UniProtKB/TrEMBL annotation:
GO molecular function terms attached to this record: metallopeptidase activity
Organismal lineage: Bacteria, Pseudomonadati, Pseudomonadota, Alphaproteobacteria, Sphingomonadales
InterPro entries, per the entry: Metalloprtase-TldD/E_C (IPR045569), Metalloprtase-TldD/E_cen_dom (IPR045570), Metalloprtase-TldD/E_N (IPR002510), PmbA (IPR047657), TldD/PmbA_N (IPR035068), TldD/PmbA_sf (IPR036059)
Domain Metalloprotease TldD/E C-terminal: 231-447
Source species: Sphingomonas aliaeris
GO biological process, alphabetically ordered: proteolysis
Protein name, entry field: TldD/PmbA family protein
Length: 448
């Protein structure tokens, strides 16, 4: 694989070619990836997969017209043809008064921040197989587990580079490792499943495969013989694995595209209280070895820690340059893009700050409620905020988590759910988006 400097130079080279061929402005992305994954089932090797890819994407502007093209053929002749095709397409495209590169005076200057995302390691398939087997063995060793969907382990390394015609060129590399296990318990039509997994940028930071497998087994066995719940309105408590989806609903509603198109249930909410005062939601792109850390955004702008919600108040939209121009605002450093198409927006290491209450205290006064550990289908209507999802989990009775329940639906409206949300104090950074245990009052449950 190329080095980050070589990837940066490739992106800069095709931008120079585009300018020389007649483009008024251009930017380019170069992305390369190698990945290895191993899966096992019932103690035997099931699959070994290896992939390698390298792609280059070019976006050109001719006046207010633009076009994007991409290729995995990196030969000189193919790149020359790519430039010609992109410019020809741009000249036939409709004008877009908001399109263009990021403001030049806002570009990241100087050295790209080092975030410790790449441990430089290479892992042999045998080592991944050993980790996958260890995870599955630990899960199957839990009393009550009756079958397995398998264990898995993976390793990857990627390089991402961006260059623009008005002064930015940067690149970075990142490694990634993962271990997972998924097993079943019970018999026949009453079988239940659950899983656990862990991912890390550095291999040394992975949790032990045995711990991952044991948790997968224990979670599965705990769900045996689920009961039903009666319909009604009650408090719902989300475990951290599932509560993170609430952040996704917020981000979708405050993204530049949703605001400029007027398709957000939070369209008029900027500067107002949309959560309880206990809730603060932040994004930290500079978190060392974070799963979604990045030193610059998809347009070459610097990135920094941002509080989207502070003590319940909505503080900002997520804006790339195009949506910022349309709204008469400044881009927020959240642009994201692949090798093709225009930038959109995305967060990095998104999280809800921990509250002051232990999870046990959070549920202590719930006489009748549900602790949700799995959600299925559905989601939130981005325009109205109406929310409905299938779910499974455990009953909460007189302040205690008790028996498993399944096949019910939870519903509400996102604006009401946000205002009635209380976070516990058990935040851990395990995923790309992280939340503590969350309690939401007054949700509608449709069960038996």
């Amino acid at each position: 694989m190329l080095t980050p400097d070589q990837a940066r130079d490739r992106a800069a080279d095709i931008v120079s070619r585009a300018r020389a061929a007649g483009a008024d402005a251009a930017d380019a992305v170069f992305a390369a990836d190698t990945a290895l994954d191993v899966s096992v089932r019932l103690g035997a090797l099931e699959d070994v997969g290896r992939s390698e890819s390298a792609e280059l994407g070019l976006r050109v502007f001719v006046g207010r017209q633009s076009a994007s093209v991409s290729t995995s053929d990196l030969s000189v002749s193919a790149l020359d043809a790519l430039v010609e095709r992109a410019i020809a397409m741009a000249r036939e495209a409709p004008e877009d008064e908001w399109a263009g590169l990021a403001p030049e005076d806002r570009l990241l200057k100087g050295n790209v921040p080092q975030l410790d995302l790449d441990d430089g390691g290479e892992v042999e398939p045998a080592a991944l197989k050993e980790a996958a087997l260890e995870a599955e063995d630990a899960a199957r060793a839990v009393a009550g587990v009756t079958n397995s969907e398998g264990g898995g382990a993976s390793a990857s390394r990627s390089i991402w580079a961006l260059a623009t015609s008005h002064g930015f060129a940067g690149a970075y590399a990142a490694t990634g490792y993962g271990v997972s296990a998924s097993v079943l318990a019970g018999e026949g039509g009453a079988m239940v499943r659950d899983y656990d997994h862990h991912s890390a940028r550095h291999r040394r930071m992975l949790e032990s495969a045995a711990d991952i497998g044991r948790r997968a087994g224990e979670r599965t066995v705990a769900r045996i013989n689920p009961g039903v719940v009666k319909s009604g309105t009650m408090p719902i408590v989300f475990d951290p694995r599932n509560g993170g989806s609430m952040l996704g609903h917020l981000i979708g509603a405050i993204s530049g595209a949703a605001i400029t198109r007027k398709t957000s249930f939070l369209l008029d909410a900027l500067g107002t209280k949309i959560f309880s005062s206990a809730v603060t939601i932040s994004d930290d792109p500079h978190r060392p070895h974070g799963l979604r850390s990045r030193p610059f955004d998809g347009e070459g702008l610097p990135v920094s820690a941002t509080e989207f919600v502070t003590a319940g108040m909505l503080e900002t939209w997520l804006l790339d340059s195009a949506s910022a121009r349309q709204l008469g605002l400044e881009p927020t450093g959240h642009a994201a893009r692949g090798v093709g198409g225009n930038p959109g927006v995305a967060t990095s290491n998104l999280f809800m700050a921990a509250g002051d209450i232990p999870p046990e205290t959070l549920i202590a006064d719930i006489a009748d409620g549900i602790y949700v550990t799995e959600m299925l289908g559905g989601g939130v209507n981005g325009v109205t905020g109406d929310y409905s999802r299938g779910a499974a989990g455990f009953r909460i009775q007189n302040g205690e988590i008790t028996t498993p329940v399944a096949e019910f639906t939870i519903a509400g409206n996102a604006r009401d759910m946000f205002l009635n949300m209380t976070p516990a104090n058990d935040l851990e950074f395990r995923y790309g988006s992280n939340v503590p245990t969350i309690r939401i009052e007054g949700m509608t449950v449709a069960g038996a």
